[in-house]
């Protein structure tokens, strides 16, 4: 087996650090400082040896070494606290990392007590090498936008957020997960299931009184909410600044705000310590609501007014009249309709068509702009005939909860996204490509396939024409084979072609070459089938026996790569 890449190792470090509630760079540092033992998967370890109930067979791969290294660091931290180490002895709050003293203690080595069945032995290593590797990996993690030089504010920011959290808890699964993660790390547990099972002990450890029906289970996990909120309310008075407590609260922020990393959570706390959910969290519910409008629109006055007001805000217009005009409703017809009912009925029918057309495109055109989100919230408020925006937002949180639990096809589930295929132009150009439109009339191959999902757009008309040329030939091949051609590569700009190892004269650069496979068939089968009549280039790959190549050069070429 080949060694893992640095990114693959980093993923394992992140996973186990989050589980154990430790600072991830220490795992990378142990790997760099120890470089032993040699493992069964051709890797080197983090200096972890069997001890207690941990057998040699349990620490023979890199994943196992990282797992038990994380457990052993957690065990060492607990042991040092029991010996009287203060939080500041373990963690440098301003620098946002373990103290030099802790790193040096770790470098001496550690044998977990016999009572700790989850930790192993950590061998000694060079103190300076371990510290240097730890600081270097920590610096790499901090290389994100707006990351602060000092993290002295973090503890107070965490406690400020936690103190207000109960006010903004809506019972969403992601919010519940955030609280469970905090309880898990705070209590030094490894799994979500273990945390739920031990919540009574967790609560007891914080001296929180429990109600008799706290664990009357329902069909979902909402029965946990009361206990979890009690737990959160006691975090501030029980917070001592120990690393695992801080990691638990940082994990809460990360999951609560649905951020990509621990470091992003630290940055977000610098900007905002409120646990109030960002309105962006409502987007799935807003889009789902908009998606149901075509089904439930009946032309009722409040419905018509709701969508019209959404148009006004969405298009940033200053009046309802301006919104109607933007929908193609002529001002003179509106005026004439005041005295002529027939004109008014006709205008209303036209308005309904335009409003429905607007609603159908909302999910496609939504760019998460503040005014667009405001338009959708107002749409919900007026459609549901609620008196305040706050009521509408509350109802949307209820929608989100139902969507999280809804079965496919139920009324509470999000409606399937509506596919809108615009009319294709008379001639394709680099400026009018429609991603999911067929390249040729009634064809199967789309511009999405040809452009790698829009990441490799043709720069000029010659490339567009070449892509159309091969699409016509590939359609003939598909029709003859009677099976779909699964595209792996079509147009490749020169720099991408070089990056993937393509030859300098590759037809992929021109745009009229396709690499593909056909389910159930080998490359040889496709080659022998196409060879008699295919007019351009036809190739096979010895290393990839199911992959085929076709191109639209103006002469026959056959090859085996």
Structure commentary:
The protein has 561 residues and is mainly alpha-helical. Helix content is 52%, strand content 6%. It has 26 helices and ten strands. A five-stranded mixed β-sheet has the order 6-7-9-8-10.
Q: How would you concisely characterize the structure shown here?
A:
The chain is mainly α and 561 residues long. The chain contains 26 helices and ten strands. The relative contact order is 0.06.
Question: Which features would summarize this protein structure in a list?
Answer:
five-stranded mixed beta sheet; 561 residues; three-stranded antiparallel beta sheet; 10 strands; flat; mainly alpha
Counted by DSSP, the helix tally is 26
Give me the side-by-side strand order of the main sheet: 6-7-9-8-10
Largest sheet: 5 strands, mixed
Radius of gyration: 31 Å
- Beta-strand segment tally: 10
Structural class: mainly alpha
**What sort of overall outline do the alpha carbons produce when their principal axes are compared?**
flat
**Mean residue pLDDT:** 92
Distance between the termini: 26 Å
Kindly estimate the percentage of residues that lie in beta strands according to DSSP.
Answer: 5-15%
Low-confidence stretches: 212-219
Amount of helix: 40-55%
């Amino acid at each position: 087996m080949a060694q893992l890449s640095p990114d693959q190792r980093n993923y394992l470090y992140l996973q186990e650090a989050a589980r154990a509630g430790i600072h991830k760079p220490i795992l990378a540092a142990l790997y760099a400082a120890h470089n032993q033992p040699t493992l069964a998967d051709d890797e080197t370890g983090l200096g972890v040896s069997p001890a207690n109930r941990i057998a040699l067979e349990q620490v023979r791969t890199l994943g196992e070494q990282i797992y038990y290294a994380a457990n052993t660091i957690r065990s060492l931290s607990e042991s040092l606290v029991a010996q009287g180490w203060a939080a500041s002895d373990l963690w440098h709050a301003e620098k946002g990392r373990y103290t030099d003293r802790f790193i040096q203690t770790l470098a001496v080595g550690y044998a977990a007590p016999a009572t700790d069945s989850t930790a192993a032995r950590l061998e000694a290593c060079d103190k300076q090498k371990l510290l240097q590797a730890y600081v270097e990996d920590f610096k790499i993690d901090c290389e994100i936008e707006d990351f602060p030089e000092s993290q002295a504010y973090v503890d107070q920011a965490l406690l400020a957020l936690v103190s207000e959290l109960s006010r903004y808890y809506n019972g969403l699964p992601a919010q519940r997960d955030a609280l469970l993660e905090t309880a898990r790390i705070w209590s030094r547990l490894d799994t979500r299931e273990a945390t739920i099972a031990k919540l009574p002990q967790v609560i007891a450890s914080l001296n929180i009184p429990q109600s008799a029906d706290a664990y009357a289970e329902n069909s979902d996990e909402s029965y946990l909410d009361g206990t979890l909120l009690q737990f959160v309310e006691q975090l501030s008075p029980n917070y001592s600044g120990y690393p695992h407590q801080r990691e638990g609260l940082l994990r809460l922020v990360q999951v609560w705000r649905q951020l990509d990393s621990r470091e992003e959570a630290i940055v977000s706390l610098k900007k905002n310590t409120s646990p109030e959910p960002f309105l962006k969290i409502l987007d799935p519910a807003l889009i789902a609501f908009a998606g149901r409008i075509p089904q439930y629109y009946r032309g009722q006055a409040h419905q018509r007014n709701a969508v019209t007001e959404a148009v006004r805000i969405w298009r940033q217009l200053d009046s309802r009249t301006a919104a109607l005009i933007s929908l193609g409703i002529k001002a003179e017809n509106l005026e004439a309709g005041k005295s002529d009912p027939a004109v008014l009925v006709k205008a209303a029918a036209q308005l309904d068509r335009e409003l429905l057309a607007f609603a159908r495109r909302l999910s496609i055109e939504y760019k998460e702009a503040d005014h667009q989100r405001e338009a959708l919230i107002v749409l919900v408020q007026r459609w549901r005939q609620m008196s305040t925006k706050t009521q509408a937002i509350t109802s949307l949180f209820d929608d989100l909860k139902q969507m999280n639990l809804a079965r496919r096809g139920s009324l509470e589930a999000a409606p399937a996204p509506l596919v809108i295929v615009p009319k294709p132009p008379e001639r394709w150009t680099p400026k009018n490509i429609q991603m999911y439109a067929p390249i040729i009339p009634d064809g199967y191959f789309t511009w999405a396939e040809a452009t790698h999902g829009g990441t490799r757009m043709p720069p000029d008309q010659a490339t567009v024409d070449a892509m159309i040329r091969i699409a016509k030939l590939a359609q003939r091949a598909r029709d003859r084979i009677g099976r779909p051609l699964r595209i792996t590569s079509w147009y490749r700009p020169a720099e991408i072609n070089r990056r993937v190892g393509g030859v300098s004269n590759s037809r992929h650069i021109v745009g009229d070459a396709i690499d593909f496979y056909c389910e159930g068939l080998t490359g040889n089968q496709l080659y022998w089938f196409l060879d008699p009549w295919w007019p351009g280039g036809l190739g096979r790959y010895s290393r990839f026996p199911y992959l085929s190549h076709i191109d639209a050069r103006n002469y026959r070429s056959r090859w085996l790569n």
